Amino acid sequence: MSRFARALMRWQWAILLCLVSVTGLAVYGVTQLRLDPSNTRLFPQQGVDATVYQHFLATFGSDEALLVALHDPQQPLLTPEGLAALQRLTQALAELPHVGVVHSLFQAQDFTQLRLTPFGVAIPPLLPDTRLTPAQVETLRHNAQIIGTLLSADGHTAGILVVPEPEAMTPHHREAWIVAVRRVVALHAMHGRQTYVAGTPLERSDVTHLITRDQQHIVPLVFLVLLSATYSIYRVKRFAALALVCVLVSLTWTMGSVGWLGVPLNVITALLPAVIMVVSVSVVIHLVNQFIDEVEAGASGPAAVERAVQHVGAACLLTSVTNALGFFSLPVIQVPAIQEFGLFAGLGILLAFVATMTCAPLLLLHMGHVSTIRWQHLKAGRLETALVGLTQWVARHRRAVFLGMGAVLLLMVPGIASIEEGTDILRALKADAPLRVSSEFIDQHLTGVHALEGIIQLPADADLTAPTVIRRVLALSQWLRAQSGVTAVLSPWEPLRSVPPHLVADDAQLKVLATLLPLGLPLEAWLDTRGKALRLSARITTMDTTHFLALAERVRQHAASLDLPLQITGTDYMLAQMSRLLVHNQILSLASAVVLILGAITLALRSWKLGLAAAVPNLLPTVMVFGLMGWLGIALSTATAMIASVALGLFVDDTIHLLYLYRHATRVGYATLEAVTYAVQHAGRAVLFTSLILTCGFWAGLVGSFKPTIAFSFLMGLTMLCSVGTELLVTPAILLALEGQTDDGRT
User: What pLDDT is recorded for position 639?
Assistant: First the structure.
């Protein structure tokens, strides 16, 4: 780094001009950032499941729809007043732009009264009028065709299905459509009645708004935390401002790169700004600390800056590379959102190193004279004395340190076994979020807001209306209805279950009915006559990933036993498969991070012993991460799946600085214990400072809207605190053990 430091001093104005130009281009890139409200980036883009899902979307269109519920807690809705309110709400929704289909009790037909006529089939409406006789009310409350979908069992809640137009809407029109539906639904909550609305389009819209809200709250809060922490540490405004400028430049370069490449932000990559800001401050802290040490040693301004860059530049470069490698291990997880996060976060770490090692020295050169009295509190004193005492204690009680480490492992390993999977966006919302409240209400009183979709793909020479095919589909749907968690089953032939039995007993008559029956339904969304495929959809209540996938497998096996070629798919199924994929890829991602990071340290320090010394104390916090997740009931999601690899890259940062100082001390003739003490004494303060700042920075994410984001922030901050203990206890103990230091302190 000597040549770099000298070049920086010599060409400072040219470098400054270059920095301003690059930052200007990055600012333009930031203006091009956009949000992706869809959840498609959470799905694997390759494999059989991805192919089937794309085929499903291309054949039947989106599985998106809005579910509206009208609830009257005082009296059943089958009264004239309740039915009139339901009719007004249904009509208001049908009149909205971009609404394709609205289905409620007033659009439903009474298939139990179906008749064959010379002109086709005659099916009377389910509701002949808003005034029903007691007998009609009783019949409706026992109608399996509508109970649980269009009407709750107690009659106090009615459901309305709102399907958008099949033509693709622009994001602006889709957002306007969602706002209009919500407004209409809210306006009909009157006279003690309550309204609720849920569905995938709302999940996308709310996720977009919550991402924007979180950015508006978390990013300024992180800035405030970093500014307050650095000022509290140094008590010099210029040092705090210097750190903030470096963080801002690093953030601008990173997000500008994202904007220039046209990659939209999603629920995962929205974490980038906070992560980049928190991680990039570490290099600033080490550089400023070294600058202060050089000034205290008698160096002038330019000389102090040059020496500071020379002394910490190599270590900071290695820490930045290892941090980046931790993020670069994430792309082995076959989820595009996580892959993008890992690549851009790793790139951001490297850009932050370049930005800091150029901006910070130039700012230190031109920040003016700072009296050394201002940093008297940073001079070697009680803290350094305590660190030396701690190292001496470790030397005498190395065995106790290892026993303590083993006890922590024994405590945390059982927690790892209890980690659950969880990628449900609704569960990721806070309990009082309007969308979650509405979804859980509809889930409890009507049909489930989630669906298990299936495609029955017949051979090209097969007949979709063949009686044997119809009967098998009806048999599958009847079996599926009886499964735990299934509230309703929809298919083109489902209305036939309500048709009088004598009309479907004859195969020829059944074929006629099947040919005529779908004409009253949105045919293209359920039946593909050219491709010989039909859609089967099971509405389900909220369940965890394990039970959801188990249900999907049972459905697949039962369909096979009926000789139906069924392929399971749908948005919820893809999310569940992604959750399972996270578990399988987590070990691979962590293993990749371990090999990349520790391999880089071993090569850079040219010592397998130092590589091993870095491995053990940094893998311990990683185990603690997973153990805490299990004990605290934090699910493994798209956000929390990244913790181990990211944390490993951050933990090793302080280890590298300790090992660099230890190697330097041994080269100048220090004995093992003296070298370890020297390293802890000179790097301990920076270790504490950076860990404190990283912890506070990550905990700023606790104000977020998504539980996985909050869990990510909480665990990262907590484990950064825990890493201080392993860094100051386990790392010295490992070094002393590898170099043969005895328990009484002799080397």
Answer: 65
Strands of the sheet with 194-199, listed across from one edge: 99-103, 157-164, 66-71, 194-199
Average of pLDDT values for 695-709? 79
Q: How many CB atoms sit inside 10 A of residue 556's CB?
A: 14
Q: What Rg value do the Cα atoms of the chain yield, rounded?
A: 32
Alpha helices in 269-381 (DSSP H): 272-296, 301-328, 336-366
pTM: 0.72
- Return the DSSP state at 74: S
Residues 556 and 560: their CA atoms lie apart, in Å, by: 6
DSSP-derived 3-state class of residue 535: strand
Q: Note the pLDDT of residue 169.
A: 67
Query: What's the average model confidence in pLDDT over 406-422?
Result: 81
Half-sphere exposure of 119 (CA within 13 A, CB side): 2
CA dihedral 374, 240, 655, 678 (to 10 degrees): -10
- Give the residue among 192, 264, 371, 228 at the shortest CA–CA distance from 33: 264
SS3 content of the chain, % helix, strand, coil (to 5): 70, 10, 25
Secondary structure, 3-state, 660-712: HHHHHHHHCCCCHHHHHHHHHHHHHHHHHHHHHHHHHHHHHHHHCCEHHHHHH
What are the pLDDT digits (tens) for 217-262? 888 888 888 788 778 777 778 888 888 888 899 999 999 999 999 8
pLDDT-derived band at 63, boundaries 50, 70, 90:
low
Contact predicate 577/44, CB 8 Å: yes
